[in-house]
Write a structure and sequence with these properties.
Bound molecules: pyridoxal-5'-phosphate
Number of strands: 10
Number of helices: 14
Strand order of the largest sheet: 1-7-6-5-4-2-3-9
Mean pLDDT: 96
Low-confidence stretches: none
Shape: globular
Length: 375
């Protein structure tokens, strides 16, 4: 046992920022002295950099991941009377965003192996009102976007990605999350693999017409300084956050590689331990381990024990969206969601972030093994 104050947090922003702070402070000083606070040049620069990094042509910076999804769908013409098929096993904000357009989020159970949307699930949920599939890449694993894109092509549907947890995840041919459909939506919430120091979001697309609409939709619907075309929110990516994100972007590939290294250590140590089910990983760079999510029937007991031992293991998510107070009125679960409900009872996120040290990861493995040995 390590000493009393030994801790394994799920996130440590102090540690994360210590090594990159000089570059960020220098850039912040420059921004204060030279740039506009609203939609300054750093926003456009970061949009270009991030689009290129994702393998898309264009991007539009917005105020959050939720707004990215909402505006992408709206910009593509989704609205009242439409259905958007998505996974029941997601962060509730995915569904808030769909609902804000006036469309109905139709929820399907995920594939129990991957915890992601499956093409079979998508096919079963289609109705004449379906206009789009919103593919959530849960925990950082790319969903089967190539198959889903094929379904969308065949059926004349739009494909939008909720890549809030999947910055940099690669699919067949090396194409990254966000660049598979009409639009890819990202969150820069501080906890994400690429996080701002506050809220932020981005829509990437290769469609110039969509980008033009999105530039208006994020800015109160204005078509120019004095004329307004749409009723729309004020949700722009901040100049300062864009500047910070530009400094951080070149580090993301190495940080994702460190997350994968931690994941393979967990896998080596925890395979076959107790009734643990380890996360599916098809290999390569398909998974960026925003979260390392195991499953066990003793989830709450294990979590409480780890907490006592200084380890912060989270639950993403204990209440599925369709059982939230908020969810009841807005979502349409297709035929019950037993897999989603089972996951809510069994998932546990072991700490994974690029700033974790080896000894912290080893300690987590040792304590998890001890728990299942009854020690
Ligand atoms: C899967 C998913 N979708 C949407 C969001 C919403 O992003 P934000 O918190 O930036 O609004 C998040 C994260 O917070 C998320 O994890």
């Amino acid at each position: 046992m390590k000493g009393r104050n030994y801790k394994v947090p799920s996130k440590d922003y102090g540690v994360q920022y210590r090594s990159i702070l000089p570059g960020i402070l220098k850039e912040i000083e420059r921004v204060f002295l030279e740039e506009d606070p609203i939609l300054g040049k750093p926003v456009e620069r970061f949009e270009e950099e991030f689009a290129r990094w994702c393998g898309a042509d264009l991007a539009v910076g917005v105020g959050s991941g939720t707004d990215a999804i909402y505006l992408a769908l709206r910009g593509l013409g989704i609205g009242p009377g439409d259905e958007v098929v998505t996974s029941g096993h997601t962060f509730f904000a995915t569904l808030t965003a769909v609902h804000m357009t006036g469309a109905v989020p139709v929820l399907v159970d995920p594939d129990p192996k991957t915890m992601n949307l499956s093409s079979r699930g998508v096919l079963e949920a289609l109705t004449p009102r379906t206009r789009a599939v919103l593919a959530v890449h849960i925990y950082g694993l790319l969903s089967p976007v190539e198959e889903i894109r094929e379904i969308c092509r065949e059926k004349g549907l739009l494909l939008v990605e909720d890549a809030a947890q999947a910055h940099g995840a690669r699919g067949p041919g090396g194409r990254r999350a966000g660049a598979w459909g009409e639009a890819g939506c990202f969150s820069f919430h501080p906890s994400k693999n690429l996080g701002a120091f506050g809220d932020g979001g981005m829509i990437v697309t290769s469609d110039p017409a969509l980008r033009r609409v999105l530039l208006e939709l994020r800015n109160l619907g204005k078509k120019n300084k004095y004329e307004v075309r749409h009723v729309a929110p004020n949700t722009k990516l901040d100049t300062l956050q864009a500047a910070i994100l530009s400094v951080k972007l070149p580090g993301v590939d190495a940080w994702n590689a460190r997350r994968r290294e931690i994941a393979s250590y967990y896998r080596k140590e925890l395979e076959g331990v107790g009734d643990l089910v380890l996360p599916f990983d098809p290999g390569g760079e398909a998974h960026v381990y925003h979260l390392f999510v195991v499953r066990t029937s003793r989830r709450d007991e294990l979590r409480a024990r780890l907490k006592k031992e200084g380890i912060n293991a989270g639950v993403h998510y204990p209440v599925p969206p369709h059982l939230q107070e908020m969810g009841a009125g807005i979502v349409l679960p297709r035929g019950g969601l037993p897999v989603t409900e089972e996951l809510a009872r069994t998932v546990l996120s072991l700490p994974v972030s690029h700033e974790l040290r080896d000894d912290q990861v080893e300690y987590v493995c040792a304590r998890v093994k001890a728990f299942f040995r009854g020690g």
